[in-house]
Design a protein that fits this description.
By secondary structure, this protein is of the alpha+beta class. Helices cover 46% and strands 13% of the residues. It is built from 7 helices and 5 strands, in the order αααβαββαββαα. A 5-stranded antiparallel beta sheet has the order 2-3-1-4-5. The protein is rod-shaped. The model has no long low-confidence stretch (mean pLDDT 74).
Length: 212
């Protein structure tokens, strides 16, 4: 009985290294450096693509209120066309531009300098502010300025105010140009006096008859 036991012991001794090899790590794996946690990219090194991706993640994770969304992502308010007079296109534009940014272009009369335009349009902006109209103003030339509204439905009310100012040559809203008070005044100044012309013509006719 001792001989078989001895052979079993020898066999186990021979198989032990093989068993250890199979149960241990793969060859060379113990010498391979362990991968640590993935290092996050420094936000100062973010490029445009990284920032866009981050913004998309925020928009997915956060519930953003309607008013905080960019204008192009806001849902347009429903329009009840039954209450709109189709014969008045301005009313239709007022409704469709409600809550949307709109720019009004203004021309100052009298060949002003850029400084003059800055001072004149600043007074207009102040008057609009006192009337509770929130507008931003940008001078874009020696006689040209832009009034920007966050709610375009008020554009035509502001247009009515501007065209009644002494130094307003014209106002443009949505591609439509409206003459200002200065333009109307100039037009009246150069308008010929029909009565005077008629009197001169009559005198000329009489003089011709007398010569005959």
């Amino acid at each position: 009985m001792a001989a078989p036991a001895a052979w079993i012991s020898v066999l186990l001794l021979l198989l032990l290294p093989l068993l250890l090899l199979l149960s241990g790590p793969a060859a060379g794996e113990e010498n391979r450096p362990k991968a640590g946690p993935k290092k996050k990219k420094d936000i100062r090194d973010y490029n445009d693509a990284d920032m866009a991706r981050l913004l998309e993640e925020w928009e997915k994770d956060d519930d953003i209120e309607e008013g905080d969304l960019p204008e192009h992502k806001r849902a347009s308010p429903p329009i009840d066309f039954s209450k709109i007079d189709p014969s008045n296109p301005e009313n239709l534009l007022k409704v469709t531009k409600k809550g949307k940014t709109l720019m009004i272009f203004v021309t100052v009369s009298g060949n002003p300098t850029e400084k003059d335009t800055e001072e004149i349009t600043s007074l207009w902006q102040g008057s609009l502010y006192n009337a509770n109209y929130d507008v931003q103003r940008f001078v874009v030339g020696s006689d040209r300025a832009i009034f920007m509204l966050r709610d375009g439905s008020y554009a035509w009310e502001i247009k009515d105010f501007l065209i009644n100012q002494e130094r307003c040559a014209d106002v443009t809203v949505e591609g439509q140009t409206y003459p200002g008070k200065a333009a109307e005044k100039k037009k009246n100044e150069i308008k010929p006096d029909k009565k005077k012309d008629a009197a001169v013509s009559q005198k000329g006719n009489r003089a011709n008859k007398n010569e005959l």
